Each structure stands twice: as C-alpha cells, then as structure tokens.
Amino acid sequence: MKIAKVETIRPLDHPNILWILLHDDQGNVGLGETFFGQSVIEEYVHASAAPILLGLKSALPEIAHLALTPYAGFQGGGVEQRTLGGIDIGLWDLWGKRTNLPVVDLLGGGVRDDIKIYNTCAGPDYVRKTTSQHTKNWGLKGTADSSKWEDLTAFFERPAELARELLDSGIKGMKIWPFDPAAEATNGAYISQEDLSKTLKIFEKIRNEVGMEMDLMVELHGLWQRTPVEMIMHGLAEFNPYWIEDPIRPDAIDAISFLRESTGLRIATGETVVGRRGVLPLLQKNAVDILTIDTQWTGGLTEARKVATLADTYATAIAPHDCTGPVSLAACTHLVLSQNNGIIQETVRAYLNTWYSDFTTGMPPIKDGRISVTRDPGHGVLLNPELLKSDRIIRRESVA
Ligand SMILES: [Mg+2]
Q1: Interval 137-144 mean pLDDT
Q2: What is the mean pLDDT of residues 269-282?
Q3: How far is the CA of 7 from the centre of ligand 1 (A)?
Q4: CATH code for 3-100+384-399?
Q5: Can 3-100+384-399 and 105-382 be said to share one CATH topology?
Q6: How confident is the model at residue 143 (pLDDT cuts 50, 70, 90)?
Q7: What is the pTM of this model?
Q8: What is the distance in A from the centroid of ligand 1 to the CA of 57?
Q9: Which SMART domains match (predicted)?
Q10: How far away, in angstroms, is 273 Cα from ligand 1 center?
Q11: Which of 17, 250, 367, 399 is 20–30 Å from 169 (CA)?
C-alpha cells in the first residue's frame, strides 16, 4: 500500500475540521479527519508527515503509525498526535478500499451488528462558528425549535419535551451540560446553592417526564475544581445519571478517583486522553468506569483498538466519542462494533442532520436508536462531490 499523494481539504465554512485524503498508486483514496487546530495541522501534514508517508514502501496502518510517531511530540494532544490520528483513520479507510472490506472486518470483525446510541444535545452551530471552546461558541439561536435541531437551547428551555421527543424517536440516552455557564463564571471554583438547585431542576423535569426510560449522561467538560463538582455530583445522585463525564480534567487522576469513590457515581472520561499510556493510569487508579475514547484524538484507530483492549483487561467499557466530525463518527462506530467492551456510541442528531450530511455522504445508518455500518469498503464516508467542486475549500497536496 504505497501512498502517491497526500491531500488536505480545509472548509472555509467550518473553522475546526480538516480532511486528509490519502491517494495510493492504484487510484484508491482513503479519507481521514481531524478536529481543532485545523490550519496548523494542515501545515504539519504537508511539512512533516507527507514526506514520511510518501517515502514508505508500505503505508499499512501499523507500519505508518510507527513511522509517523516522532521522538518529540509522541505524547499529549498536540499537533503531532492529532495529525497521526487523522492520517491513521484515512489509512484504514484506504486499506478497506483496496481490499473491498469494511473497517470493522479489518479490525477482526463485528462482535455485534449494531449498538445503542445516545444523543449529545448540541445545536447545529455548537463549536461551529469560531475556534473557541467556550460557551460563547455554543451557537445558541434563542429558539428551541425542534425542527432546527436546537437541542442545546432545548435542554435549558424545555428539557422534558426534548427528552420525550428523543424517546419517541427511539433514542434512550441523552447528554447535556447545563452546569457549564456556572463553571465559566468562576473558573470552576464555586457554585452557589441557587445555581445548583436551579440547574438540578432540569434533571428533575426530565425524570418526571420519562422516568428511568432515558439514560442521562451529564457532561461537565473538566471545567470544575473538586469541591464544587462534588456538590454537583451529590445533587445529581437522586436522578440516577448513567454517567458523569469529565467532572474535572482527566489528568487530575487521584481527584477523579476520590470523586468516584465519595459519590458512588459512574465516571466517564478519556476523549482527550492520548493513547494507551495516557489511559493506563486512569485504569490503574480506578478513576474511570466508561472510556469515551476519541479515535482521532487518541492517535487513530491503530491506537484506539489497543486502548480498547487495554480497557477490557480492566473490565472497563468503551463508549466512543462523537462531536469531532462525520469520518470520526464512522471510525468510532466500526471500532465499537468490533470490541466486546463497547457499550454505546455517542451521536449528535443536530450535526447528523446539518453539517455532517452537508459535507459528506455514507454516514453509518441509525435506526430505532441503534447505529450500524454498511458493507461499503473502508469506513464508508465520502466527501460530498458538491463540496469538492465548491470554492469554499482550501486544497493543498503533496506528491511523491
Ligand atoms: Mg465529552
């Protein structure tokens, strides 16, 4: 599998996503993807990664992964690892195209045909208009019109209706992050009883509407310090959340472990943790119940499947991340179907129905709240031909 051309596509209408197209010497193309740091990664692809890739006798994923791992920048969520993750997904796709097999088969085969999803209640413009990761980039429209997929506004304004709507569509899990504004106001140092009680009402309304039929995932984005988040978690306990996600940053391992122990709530973390060596201490210190692995950020499918196997030796589940692009969702779905410790897949209906389907075709099918993959070769996702014709993209290429 020799690479003849490395191409990047940077859409001007999304400031965070970058696609990487890997062309082999037989005319096949693999599609990779990365999210955040778009133009910086684009530069690194052409300046550093492409010369290595183009020089490889074989760019099969394991071989290329080793070749693209530098001695400086081999760890952490920086540009090197994020480039590697994006390229690696493209190489698995290319390998699938060459062998006419879906990625799930290349991973050893699906141990299940489909898996339950949960909906992350973002709106279409969540983290969409700028590169900011703060609430000012939530893209709120000030209307909770369900036909526009404004699920973020909806979880604040009409949480019960939103939960009912999701349940009626077959989706039995939802993730919301209503504590984030309070965290931002104090850099996570303090939450008032008033803010706490007001925010807990959202969970009460959801439970009153749908009872225990809905799994509730609470996203805290690692914004908190330990004392206020402990108050939040104790407050949430009566609503029986399925998991608490990133209560504090995942590098505060002892503190997460303490929170897990003191509150008795399940902890989900891992989407920003890079590779096996990043995940291992979380497992060793009993800090995680569910690993929310992100296939691109953790270093690609090559690394992600090893992370999944490592987690399995600790009887720890994986629940792969979405929110970082259509190709990543497809890669995560192939992964979770191939791993026995896969329990659920994150999806964002506001994205699937807007920019994911505007930019790409071949999304993993979702039916009755479950996601699967097709028998299409590779991961199945292709860039929309209209996007490739548009003048709203920056295209760069490196050739052998
Ligand atoms: Mg998360």
Answers
A1: 76
A2: 96
A3: 29
A4: 3.30.390.10
A5: no
A6: low
A7: 0.97
A8: 38
A9: MR_MLE
A10: 11
A11: 17
